């Protein structure tokens, strides 16, 4: 008999009888009756029927599908994630079987390749088409896009016999990567780091490593070496590279293509259903070799996963908050463990969690302390805003303005970093003092002047900016408070009327193509001053960027968040690291009201060790991660009293366990989201405590009212 797990919120797998001669293994993809329907599921276990089973009448599995069975390592991973995050296995399985079309035969697509003979009549547009058509099998629309011609020209060329038409399934294989492609010549320290990586990947067993190298030191080049070696040694090896915000880091993808001679398989939310289906199937068949993806790529059904790389492992976007909340870095390590694979966590500012793991010897610790060649790390200095206050209604201090002027005079580029989208983070009424809030959430609305709307950044709710105050009715009294990138652009344009300034945020560059365009303009030198949010802080290499100005370095230092200092430090190191990545030396200037704050001092002196020691000391004293464990329990309900009662009732039956503290219920700063009132509990436990098991057993003691939802967040990153 077989137990089948369905990708839905059902507490456990159901038992079925296996028809004679049906070739099933654990992991097989099957269709089985559930209630009155036939439903897709995965064979979770196969076992001999015991005596007591024989008295039950079991339903029979209907069919087994022509999809490779999920490997044991994938099943074990689903079990683990479900247990660790306190979610049902079926809900986690749904994340694996996320491409529902993958089990159906692939649809057919019409694509074109150059015909053996060129037509007599050739035009420049036709030449362009034939040049790009040689690179692959593209649809007419794709060819037209790549050659920058109209689809009509493609069609005419095909009619004239210049293109051959082929009908082929939409999930055709990816071009195999070439492991022999040549990379840059590594410096001696990069070679040493590369060699250290190879000793790990060649073990062919679970081997975690932290690749800890300053910004621009060549971490990517080093892990490319590891990838090339894994590809060369094992014809079937698959490699997963997780990148934060992958949809927006197209330049990194281009580097993969350059190095390995073929684009990697991409997996992220911006991909179409057809593209996802192709990746899913090719991964399951083991034919996609390098997969570059967002965190959800961890749940792809890899046939032979040998290496995982988590680039920018400290990045908070690896933490998934919605649905099953998990941290992709931690789950990547678990995924590698179940697959007996190597895992490389790369960062210039590793998380304290990973640093502690490296220092205790659980992870190999490989360092790169310098940039290659003549590139050097930019010196970081501060401008004390108490001494150099910007003019009223402005945000740039005299010393920063002066440095910008010099930079532009040298024909170099500036990046101003302000992690605030929109025009102003707050709108108040000058007449009655009312602050514009979202109607259904405890958030302030952010003014976006390009769109003329007030927007809630948490839920996406938006409304046109009213002409009069909704509270007192005063006309024209609504006033923006504080700067966002759009407002900073106004200031920059007023000060530097001859400079070309642009905003780089998810509002101005919200597709991969926009980002590509903007990066190309920056690389060509068409932009003098780039004003960017977090998006501009990551990954990019702009050779002529030599000045980074951080408009508000204090932002984020005082969140109600145990990682506030760490995160500020990481962001500022990353953003400062955008400067001086090529031959031109760069510098970074931080505007701050607190030049003596530990994180700011550490940044300026480059003394990471002292900062880390202080942060770790604090965490140890508080019993916080990585020395202790945390779990957040978040209750929500449409009625405030209901949520208060539910949280109280929950606490009343809390398990009394040694080394576990329960704090709350408390009213969080975000006490209402999308019309639901919220209360939080925080569980702090010693490292040895299995918090997931504790929360699971606790949850079973209470039956929550239908209106009340409980979200469990093991190892929370948000405390709002
Ligand atoms: P990181 O990942 O540590 O930020 P990268 O691997 O992106 O660093 O390297 C930064 C830049 O320096 C890239 O443009 C890269 O190609 C270049 N680079 C790194 N190492 C070398 C080297 N040994 N020779 C030439 N260029 C290099």
Low-confidence stretches: none
The small molecules bound here are: adenosine-5'-diphosphate
Number of strands: 32
Which topology of the largest domain does CATH recognise? Rossmann fold
Question: How large is the radius of gyration?
Answer: 28 Å
Largest sheet: 7 strands, parallel
Number of domains: 5
Beta content comes to: 15-25%
Helix content: 25-40%
3D structure, described in words:
The chain is of the alpha/beta class. It folds into five domains: 2-97, PriA, 3(prime) DNA-binding domain (GIY-YIG endonuclease, 3-Layer(aba) Sandwich); 108-169; 188-368, Rossmann fold (3-Layer(aba) Sandwich); 380-420 and 483-616, P-loop containing nucleotide triphosphate hydrolases (Rossmann fold, 3-Layer(aba) Sandwich), CATH 3.40.50; 628-714, Ribosomal protein S10 (Alpha-Beta Plaits), CATH 3.30.70.600. It is built from 21 helices and 32 strands. The strands form eight sheets. The chain has a seven-stranded parallel sheet, with helices on both faces. A six-stranded parallel sheet has the order 17-27-26-18-25-24, sandwiched between helices. A five-stranded antiparallel sheet has the order 2-1-4-3-5. Helix 5 crosses helix 6 (151-159). The longest helix has 15 residues, at 219-233. The protein is globular and about 85 Å long. The two termini are 47 Å apart. The mean pLDDT is 90. The chain binds adenosine-5'-diphosphate. Adenosine-5'-diphosphate binds next to helix 8.
